[in-house]
From TrEMBL:
This is Ribosome biogenesis protein NOP53. InterPro entries: Nop53/GLTSCR2 (IPR011687). It is found in: Nucleus, Nucleolus; Nucleus, Nucleoplasm. Residues 15-34 have a biased composition (Basic residues). Residues 58-95, 146-162 have a biased composition (Basic and acidic residues). The keyword Nucleus applies. Residues 343-371 form a coiled coil. GO terms for molecular function: 5S rRNA binding. It comes from Strongylocentrotus purpuratus.
Amino acid sequence: MEFVKMEQSTQSQPTKRKRAGVAKNRKKAWRKHSNIKDVEDFMDDQRMQLRTGGLISEKPDESLFFVDNKHPPQDEGESKKNLEKPLKIDRKLMPDPRIPVARISRTPKSSERPKRKSKLVQRLEEEGKWGPSSTVKRRKLTAALRDSDKAEKDKDDDQKRRECGRAVYDLWGAPVPAKTKTEGTPNEHYLRVTKKTRKQVPKTYYNKTSCFNAVEVVSGGASYNPTFEDHQELIQKAIQVELDMDKKEEKLNRWHRFAKVSRAEMERTSMAEMTEGLFEDGHNPEEEAKDDGDDDVLPSAPVVAERRKTRKQRNKEKQISQQTKKAHAEKAEKIRLHEVYRLRSLKREIKEKEEKIATKIKQKKAKAQEDEGKTKRLGRYKYEELPIPVKLSEHLVGNLRRLKPEGSLIVDRFNNLQKRNMIEPRIWKKGMKPKMKEYEKKTFKEIKLAE
């Protein structure tokens, strides 16, 4: 019976159903399904305050608070009870006295580890022989002095490295004499960053592919506040470059002004000029022969039995050809035998030939040495210098704030790589925009047909 009752009680409990979504797009739905319990609780509280003496928010502070100056006597037992207990989370963090401290097994540091002394050292210390004058103490003192010298040397080296980056020099002054390979110092930046010297590099590491610098210093006239003489000198250089370009362009225009004539037409014109006045009728026999030459051409006659060569004729021709070959061989042998008597002339010819070859090799080496480091022709296009960046007198400003830069930095670097034979000269081409293609979609065609 009890089991049945329990089953009935479980069945009688209402099952929780998921609340269906309600649309609140009308006021009726707002009133029906809105939760206004917090508003009702607030109104009930206000009514209770009005019934019990008025609203608390409108009462003055004196009626709500008072200062209690009396100290009621407290028992010792009560004071202990009234002490605030620590929070539960703080009590859990406090150590439990009933649990022993966990033992950490670790090797003590050398400073914490007690130094074990041998019986000999203990005996020497008692006798007073183990002191500052001992060998161990002397060794320690020497090591300390060595470390101090090393630290002082490292400090001096660090100071030198710092000073090398603060060198002051005149950009447009007299050039500083370059150090040779033997006098050169290690890379200061590498030494400053890694605190190490570079490893030995191959001999060809310092060989430059070009005599030009990676960053070339422009003349003093390109400064934002140049002197009058430097500025005028730079303007004259720029004018000379422009004049040379105009001269080349004028030369090209003059060459293209003449009409181009083919070689065949030139020969025909010259022939007409040479034969002018020779033929009064105006008929040229060469032209007529040329025109009638096609009609006179006949195919080769067929071979007939009467024209065939006999065996006797063939043998005769073979004998003549053999005699001719023999005569040529005898002549060549005679010439070879006679060359023995002209050894002097042969030696002279060989010597002249060797001198000519040596002269050519020397000229080639001199030219290669002269062109070494200069800009070479590596690709299809020839290297062209950039125009000199120059500002006119009216565009000069006295400070860097109002200065407008000339040229482009990326173009300058690109041109410098070409000048130093690192990349071949190239021409920057702008991409061609493809034309807009118009077409009708299949769906649009179907709609069009349906209409």
